[in-house]
Specification:
The complex is a heterodimer. By secondary structure, chain A is of the alpha/beta class. Chain A is 22% helix and 29% strand. Chain A is globular and about 60 Å long. In chain B, helix 3 (59-71) packs across helix 7 (148-166) and helix 10 (215-225) packs antiparallel against helix 13. The chains are: A alpha/beta, B mainly alpha. Chain A: Residues 1-14 have a biased composition (Basic and acidic residues).
Chain lengths: 275, 503
């Protein structure tokens, strides 16, 4: 094992700007002009696919007219048959190179538990780019509890949350869930993207306190952050065992290639009873 | 293990106390049926009964209580609520209260001797009951309306997080981090801009580059000279003033201007060149002032570390670690390779040799060591840096005494590698530094604490001894007054231990 205080920054530049152009400015005109694009619902409720020149993952914008991090927006007119009132629905493009959850969805996860009306505990919310999409998915009836430790990114997270009332920002260490227990109710799913060596433990702690029985756990694992010397597959296997010890029954595991290198997404179900 | 009688539920709306009516079984706790019962409101509602609910009256009160609960401190409001709703415990049977957090449990136990506390860690039954409460509390507390909890959570979440962001412990560190980053950018910018000035003005006066090689001086000269035709013998003094009063150099500039092969330049062009040169000069001046600012700031925030390895490297270390607190938590081995992560992880992956140094390479010590000893001195220096950062971070009012002592130790170690002169023993070096620090404190304190007049007739010999005694006395007194001194002392012990093991 490597020293915990040294982080492998060599090939990790955070989520931002690895492959994708910032703000998706590169593709001139592909997505614009809503007339050409058709938006269809994705297999997972709350997520949509925009079919234009190329297909894109989109979510319905909760606060129309506002981009959170400079992502593209697609407006679709939907004429409601009876009278000629044309209402517009706005969607935001969800970049799989920036969001691991989007990468997981594109990779074909069977079940992500995050659906309209769900309560989500989001560990490792960072600046709230992915969180904003999760908030779009769960919609006004759902809630996202977004936990982030860093003050710097927390600032952006709070700013994002002021425009989305279903996001509750919590600037606190996810290692100490008891510190924010007053702010969180029982949740349907925990999404964790914390990239810490003791990630499985963090997820377990939070699950024992806040996750409903039978609730979902979606964990993104970056092999390098846990053990940079071992083979990624071995690291993933070890993490899955650790999750199992935390009474999380693994359902599926998916690599995030080609969007992220040496990352895996593990989906599980929290089973509190033992039989 | 006693069964749990009452449960405390803290939420965003207030404190609620529930009585456990129907005791759950410890053994069958993980059975599916038991777990399912916890999910079912009808069944769970029969297991517990609300005995008290104290909603927060204002948003400010809510935030205050949430902050206290988060730290595991019992607020007065919670105390009164507990007093009101829990029955007076008899001598024989203590009341068992289920609480989520063990620190909060500790503070409750401290002020209510008749209450025993169980937490989710100590008893799984309590953990499950508390989970049930979190699940159903919105419905069990009949006073609440649908959505009350959600709204309270949202408001409180924002307030709590805002306060967290606002109250940052590492206020000063941030300025250092930004300053060093700006300094790096400025260096780059000043350099490229200076090159541009040389290039541009060079069309007019190509000989100047040969005479004045320094970028900053060049820009200043370009600004002062302007059109080279205007340069006469009269301006010798003005030119000399810009080149450190070097008369020969100034004369050379004037001579070169006379025979220059540069093109003539129009006024409009010259104006632009001058404007740019002016910017570059200003930028270079700003860089100097910023550097001074950094030096001053480091003298406040991390004087020992700055004394040991210099302000810039120290600032870079802090910047890399994120804050001085983070840096002081790092082991010396990490400090040693800080900034060389890429090389380190490559080495770990390929099982090659790990790097010997990262950022601390830029300190002068490593350059001065022989090739064979570079790794050794790097390790030694990293040890000292680690100690210095800890002293800086954890002492209330740090001075440079330890930094100087540590610096001297590194110098001696370098000397030892070069010539074989034995360095001072670590114990002695640290003791003298400690004495110096204590000596400073003593001077401050004499008028206040040393009220008892010392008899002047004492012999000199015994005075020496007495001095030592009083020093020790001071030490003790100080450690009682402020923990700071104690911390330093502890560190010292730690340090000597470390030294003896690493040497």
């Amino acid at each position: 094992m490597t020293d915990r205080s040294v982080r492998d920054k060599g090939d990790s530049r955070g989520g931002r700007g690895r492959g994708a152009p910032r703000g998706g400015g590169g593709r001139g005109g592909g997505a614009k002009g809503g007339a050409k694009t058709i938006v269809e619902p994705h297999r997972h409720a709350g997520i949509f696919v925009a079919r234009g020149k190329e297909d894109m993952l989109v979510t319905k914008n909760l606060s129309p007219g506002v981009s959170v991090y400079g992502e593209k927006r697609i407006s679709v007119e939907n004429s409601s048959g009876a009278d000629d009132t044309v209402s517009k629905t706005e969607y935001r493009v969800w970049n799989p190179f920036r969001s691991k959850l989007a990468a997981g969805v594109l990779g074909g996860l069977d079940e992500i538990f995050i659906k309209p009306g769900a309560k989500v505990l989001y560990l490792g919310a960072a600046s709230g780019t992915s969180v904003s999409h999760v908030a779009d998915i769960v919609g006004p009836t759902g809630t996202v509890f977004a936990v982030e430790f860093s003050h710097r990114s927390g600032r952006d997270l709070i700013n994002m949350a002021t425009h989305r009332t279903n996001v509750i920002p919590i600037i606190e260490d996810a290692r100490h869930p008891l510190k924010y227990r007053m702010l969180v109710s029982m949740v349907d799913v925990i999404f964790a993207d914390v990239a810490q060596p003791d990630q499985a433990r963090i997820v377990g702690l939070n699950a024992h306190l806040f996750l409903k029985v039978g609730g979902g756990v979606v964990v993104s694992i970056k092999a390098n952050c846990i053990d940079s010397t071992a083979a990624p597959e071995a690291v993933f296997a070890r993490e899955v065992t650790k999750l199992r010890e935390e009474r999380i029954k693994p359902l599926e595991q998916l690599t995030l290639e080609p969007f992220e290198r040496d990352h895996a997404m593990v989906v599980g179900r929290y089973v509190r009873s033992t039989t | 293990m006693a069964a749990v009688d009452y449960l405390l539920h803290e939420s965003a709306v207030g404190y609620a106390i529930f009585q456990v009516v129907h005791q759950a079984d410890t053994i069958g706790n993980r059975l599916k049926e038991v777990q399912d019962a916890g999910q079912d409101l009808a069944k769970f509602g029969k297991m517990v009964k609300v005995v008290g609910f104290a909603p927060y009256r204002t948003a400010a009160e809510a935030l205050e209580n949430v902050n206290l609960v988060s730290e595991g401190v019992m607020s007065d409001y919670l105390r009164s609520e507990l007093e009101l709703n829990l029955p007076k415990p008899s001598k024989k049977k203590k009341i068992v209260l289920g609480v989520s957090d063990k620190t909060l449990a500790g503070s409750i136990k401290a002020s209510f001797p008749g209450i025993e506390c169980e937490t989710g860690d100590t008893s799984e039954v309590v953990g499950d009951l508390l989970r049930g409460l979190r699940f159903h509390a919105g419905k069990l507390l009949v006073k609440l309306q649908e959505g009350d909890v959600d709204r309270a959570q949202l408001g409180l979440g924002h307030a709590y997080s805002r306060a967290k962001v606002k109250f940052s412990v590492q206020k000063n560190d941030n300025h250092i981090i930004q300053a060093i980053a700006t300094l790096d950018h400025l260096d780059k910018a000043v350099n490229t801009f200076s090159m541009r000035v040389r290039e541009w003005y060079g069309w007019h006066f190509p000989e100047l580059v040969r005479i004045v090689s320094d970028n900053h001086t060049y820009a200043k000269l370009a600004l002062a000279i302007g059109d080279k035709q205007t340069l006469t013998q009269d301006s010798l003094h003005d030119i000399a003033a810009l080149v450190n009063d070097d008369g020969d150099l100034a004369q050379a500039v004037i001579d070169a201007a006379r025979v220059s092969m540069g093109q003539a330049i129009s006024d409009a062009d010259m104006e632009n060149v001058s404007a740019f040169a002016n910017r570059v000069v200003k930028l270079a001046e700003y860089r100097k002032s910023l550097y001074q600012y950094l030096v001053d700031k480091m003298a406040i925030v991390a004087p020992n570390l700055a004394t040991l390895i210099g302000e810039v490297v120290a600032a870079r270390l802090i910047s890399h670690a994120g804050s001085l607190t983070n840096l002081s938590k790092y082991p010396a081995s990490t400090v040693q390779i800080l900034g060389a992560e890429k090389a380190l992880f490559r080495a770990l992956k390929t099982k090659g040799n790990t790097p010997k140094y990262g950022l601390i390479y830029h300190s002068s010590f490593i350059g001065r060591a022989g090739a064979k000893n570079k790794g050794r001195i790097s390790r030694f220096l990293a040890n000292k840096c680690s100690i210095a950062s800890r002293i800086d971070n954890f002492s209330e009012d740090p001075n440079t005494k330890f930094g100087e002592a540590l610096r001297k130790q590194v110098e001696e170690r370098l000397d030892f590698y070069a010539t074989g002169t034995a360095p001072t023993k670590n114990e002695d070096a640290m003791r003298s530094a400690m004495d110096a620090v204590l000596g400073d404190i003593q001077i401050d304190d004499i008028p206040m604490t040393d009220a008892a007049p010392q008899s002047e007739k004492k012999e000199k010999k015994s005075k020496d001894k007495k001095d030592k005694d009083s020093k020790k006395d001071k030490k003790r007194r100080h450690s009682e007054v402020n923990g700071d001194e104690e911390a330093v002392e502890k560190k010292k012990k730690k340090k000597s231990k470390k030294e003896s093991s690493s040497d």
